[in-house]
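Weekly modeling sync, notes
Attendees: S.R. (lead), two postdocs, one rotation student

Agenda item 3: backlog of single-chain predictions. S.R. asked that every request posted to the team notebook include the full sequence so nobody has to chase files. The rotation student volunteered to paste the first one in as an example of the format we agreed on. Action items at the bottom.

Example entry:
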Amino acid sequence: MPQASDIEIAQAASMRPIVELARERLGIDAADLEPFGHYKAKLSFELLERAAARQPGTLILVTAMSPTPAGEGKTTTTVGLGDAMNRLGHRTLMCLREPSLGPVFGFKGGAAGGGHAQIVPMEDINLHFTGDFGAIQLANNLLAAMLDNHLQQGNALGIDLRRITWRRVLDLNDRVLRQIVVGLGGPGNGFPREGGFDIVAASEVMAVLCLANSLEDLRQRLGDIVVGYTHEQRPVTARELGAQGAMTVLLRDALKPNLVQTLENNPALVHGGPFGNIAHGCNSAIATRAALGLADFVVTEAGFGADLGAEKFIDIKCRSAGLAPAAAVIVATVRALKYHGGVALDALTQPDPGAVEKGLANLERHIENVRHVYGLPCVVSLNRFESDSDQEVAVVRSAMQALQVPMAPATHWSDGGQGAIELARMVVDACMTPSPMRLLYEDELPLWDKIGAVARRVYRASEVTADTKVRAAIRKLQADGFGHLPVCIAKTQSSFSTDPKLRGAPENHVLNVREVRLAAGARFVIALCGDILTMPGLPAVPAATRIDLVDGRVVGLF
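Predicted structure, as returned to the notebook:
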């Protein structure tokens, strides 16, 4: 019998009405929920305030080794671990990001987990969900429209058309929109100038929503967004355009976290969706805080490998929100270890213990960063596949024993929470003896040195380079009073370096910063490195070609 797909498993699930589940599992009254149909709902602001005031539970971060095209199952592990902890009697909530339609219709896939470790309703979550991404897109593009209208109506602020930094966004992969010209067609259509689109997940508005702790904080951060510069090179903000109020109105409901459930009817919050390679890659701080007030344990994930997601989770989200995980889970797979050991993608299912041993350098680098750079105890979750041989698993177990790192093979994809029981026990044990989390750098360190700290201590680069234009831009940000902000490094997720083909644990490579962008509302500075793009393109055969509606049911969605 052919193996059921993720969507077939999800569609066969027996879901509980979300109002009933919230009351029985979290003690949430119906008055504090805003249902979207029967199986998803938003939490009220009143509930968020009460939850944030309670004694917080224990936070667990799920991260991973450097990902491969085969996929390592980090979201699946987050869900499976949460289900397993609930099976053990620990009241546990999962905090996940919302999927972007770019990967859904492109290549990578969704963000609802997989197999028997999923959140549901899967189709809704992976498609329009509760409209949060649409609200972010509208708020972002309203600001762009108000900016161009200000120029058309006389440009009282004296904005230099050559120094406009605000871009429009779209929640789809569309490479032809990366660089465009707007304002063509004569005086009635505005001033011709270069512009471009980013994907919604890379929007500063997305980052603002994910880091804001209240409606008022959201409004303040939106007003702080810098859209460009005057002829005297003074930054111009959204507040000066009068846009922050209307943007806040558009985002009012989007700021409320979304409550759904797993296949095992355990509650989960799904909110916000920045990418980990080009943004800070974490779910919203407001959802995480709420979860900590509603549960004993909270399991959350950060995008891509620990060099990206975990670094930004700690140095941006935890720094901003005053959070600190008690332990981290590093997701690994035998096939990812073989890939980093030099095996071709189409040969990853063939047994090769030697390649596993060679690829351990990548996993060990991430372990070293989590334990010794950030000071967190960690557990390795070996997401097991049918093609993994016992000998290959033994290689990993032996290496982890030598490092004194707990490791559990997990089969949650096929067995649900039961397949992650051993992992859950190890994670709970790790949380019992937490060590203080360490930030990578202090706020007072100059921006250039912050970039260097991440490059050298996390990526193991020997040098950071940038041309004179980029260095001047960094000095300008420092002089304008933004030097205290953390840095968000955007680079490939496939390697510690900026070369996606450089597998394993490369050292002494060069990190080249090709562009810097200020995210004053999000309160970080973005350093774009290598060939990373903020508007992805579609692959040769997009996933959209497989998606359809048959007899009223979605098919082909993973």
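Discussion: group reviewed the output briefly. The CA atoms of residues 168 and 518 lie 15 Å apart.
Action items: rotation student to repeat for the remaining queue; S.R. to check formatting next week.
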